[in-house]
């Protein structure tokens, strides 16, 4: 089997792997300024997608330019998430170099889309493919690729611990080669129940004091997880931004949720913000919880809420995940201030960070790979893939960290 990495190798973002010059696994974007996309000019016979986050689907419609019409295989939620993200990219950057596709190319995606559930095999570009639950977000999949000689397991992004939104991955299909993500290879997450307990206690304290809590959250996965946490602990919350639409989208696929009834209760517990007639400013003046995009304060309704609550030390900003270097969220954590809505805000509100990550940590990665001691392990999707591969070799694994560009035979 031949593998060529067009992105995502020794980096996080723009995941794209070409298998046997025919089958493309993922085709994402990297949120730099300007955005980065996979390298090379390719014409795959078929595309298989692991899950619906921008770094895995952000450039998919660009594969349908000209006369190219490769079928695209994914789970039903991943298809819908990819279409929604492409729509958002066009809205923000359409007609500029920051968007690599057109509205017509986005429309073509629906014409070539083929959806599949977990554990049912199908054929793509002469390969047998099987999806397994990856436990990352609804519809996320490990992808098993069999070319008749070699069985490759592409993990995509995955989690080995249950979240309220989705169950952890438990599938460990036989494979000769494992292509494994390593986003948190150097971190051990705090136990989720402990994170949740601290978050709930902190939020309740601020509400008792009459303060407002703004929780910046990613629209896909994180917003819904926080809605479930609030509902489970009888904490009222407002939800704003793209997360509202994504919540409605995901509820259409109960089979991909850990507890569809809990998600329905969480939706009933939350109040969705319309943003009309100054609603956001009125909400920001209340002792309440506001779960809103963007997760790193780089846009979205957070740009309205932060200027309203930043100056009061009773209020609180609770980050729900990692803040990438160079984002306003990272600036707030490191310096106490950031450029928000076109002006510099020096934050007097209390600032906290909670690890609600949907990725496996060092222990989770080790647990997952323990079932593949006889396989070749390729490490990608991380900031220090080479070091993690070296750690695995020290434990007896045949492990390496491929680079973007060269063709590898496995």
List strands and helices in order, with pairings.
Blueprint: E1 2-7, E2 16-19, E3 23-25, E4 46-48, H1 54-57, E5 72-74, H2 76-93, H3 103-112, E6 113-115, E7 122-124, E8 127-133, E9 141-146, E10 151-154, E11 177-181, H4 192-208, E12 213-216, H5 222-232, E13 237-240, H6 243-251, H7 260-269, E14 270-272, H8 279-284, E15 289-292, H9 302-309, E16 316-319, H10 328-335, E17 337-340, E18 343-346, E19 350-353, H11 362-369, E20 376-380, H12 385-394, E21 398-400, E22 407-409
Parallel strand pairs: 3-4, 4-5, 5-6, 10-11, 11-20, 12-15, 12-16, 13-14, 13-15, 16-19, 20-21
Antiparallel strand pairs: 1-2, 1-22, 2-3, 7-8, 8-9, 9-10, 17-18
Helix pairs in contact: 2-3, 5-7
Protein described:
This protein has 410 residues and is of the alpha/beta class. It has a seven-stranded mixed sheet. It has a seven-stranded mixed sheet with strand order 7-8-9-10-11-20-21, covered by helices on one side. A six-stranded parallel sheet has the order 14-13-15-12-16-19, with helices on both faces. It folds into two domains: 2-186 and 358-409, Metallo-beta-lactamase, Chain A (4-Layer Sandwich); 192-353, Rossmann fold, CATH 3.40.50.10890. The chain has helices at 54-57, 76-93, 103-112, 192-208, 222-232, 243-251, 260-269, 279-284, 302-309, 328-335, 362-369, 385-394; strands at residues 2-7, 16-19, 23-25, 46-48, 72-74, 113-115, 122-124, 127-133, 141-146, 151-154, 177-181, 213-216, 237-240, 270-272, 289-292, 316-319, 337-340, 343-346, 350-353, 376-380, 398-400, 407-409. The mean pLDDT is 97. The protein has twelve helices and 22 strands. Strand 1 (2-7) and strand 2 form a beta hairpin. The longest helix is centred in the N-terminal third of the chain and has 18 residues, at 76-93.
């Amino acid at each position: 089997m031949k593998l060529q990495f067009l992105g995502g190798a020794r980096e996080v973002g723009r995941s794209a792997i070409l298998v046997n010059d025919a089958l493309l696994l993922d085709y994402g974007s990297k949120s730099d300024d300007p955005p980065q996309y996979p390298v090379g000019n390719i014409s795959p016979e078929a595309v298989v997608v692991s899950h619906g986050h921008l770094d895995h689907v952000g450039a998919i419609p660009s594969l349908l330019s000209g006369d190219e019409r490769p079928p695209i295989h994914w789970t039903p939620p991943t298809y819908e998430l990819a279409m929604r993200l492409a729509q958002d990219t066009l809205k923000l950057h359409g007609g500029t170099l920051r968007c690599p596709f057109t509205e017509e190319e986005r429309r073509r995606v629906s014409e070539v889309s083929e959806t599949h559930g977990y554990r049912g095999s199908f054929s793509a570009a002469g390969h047998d493919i099987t999806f397994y639950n990856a436990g990352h977000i609804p519809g996320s999949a490990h992808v098993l690729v069999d070319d008749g000689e070699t069985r490759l397991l592409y993990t995509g992004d995955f989690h080995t611990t249950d979240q309220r939104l989705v169950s952890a991955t438990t599938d460990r299909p036989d494979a000769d080669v494992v292509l494994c993500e390593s986003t948190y290879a150097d971190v051990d997450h705090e136990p989720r129940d402990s994170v949740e307990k601290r978050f709930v206690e902190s939020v309740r304290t601020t509400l008792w004091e009459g303060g407002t809590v703004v929780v910046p959250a990613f629209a896909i996965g994180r917003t819904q997880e926080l809605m479930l946490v609030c509902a489970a602990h009888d904490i009222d919350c407002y939800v704003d931004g793209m997360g509202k639409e994504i919540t409605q989208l995901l509820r259409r696929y109960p089979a991909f949720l850990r507890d569809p009834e809990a998600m329905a209760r969480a939706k009933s517990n939350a109040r969705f913000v319309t943003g009309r007639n100054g609603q956001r400013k009125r909400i920001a003046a209340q002792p309440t919880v506001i779960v809103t995009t963007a997760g790193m304060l780089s846009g979205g309704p957070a740009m309205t809420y932060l200027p309203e609550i930043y100056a009061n030390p009773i209020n609180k900003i609770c980050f729900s995940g990692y803040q990438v270097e160079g984002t306003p969220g990272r600036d707030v954590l490191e310096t106490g201030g950031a450029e928000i809505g076109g002006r510099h805000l020096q934050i007097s509100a209390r600032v906290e960070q909670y690890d609600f990550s949907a990725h496996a940590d060092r222990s989770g990665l080790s647990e997952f790979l323990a079932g593949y001691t006889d396989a070749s392990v390729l490490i990608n999707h991380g900031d220090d893939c080479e070091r993690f591969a070296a750690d695995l070799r020290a434990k007896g694994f045949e492990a390496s960290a491929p680079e973007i560009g060269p063709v590898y035979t496995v």
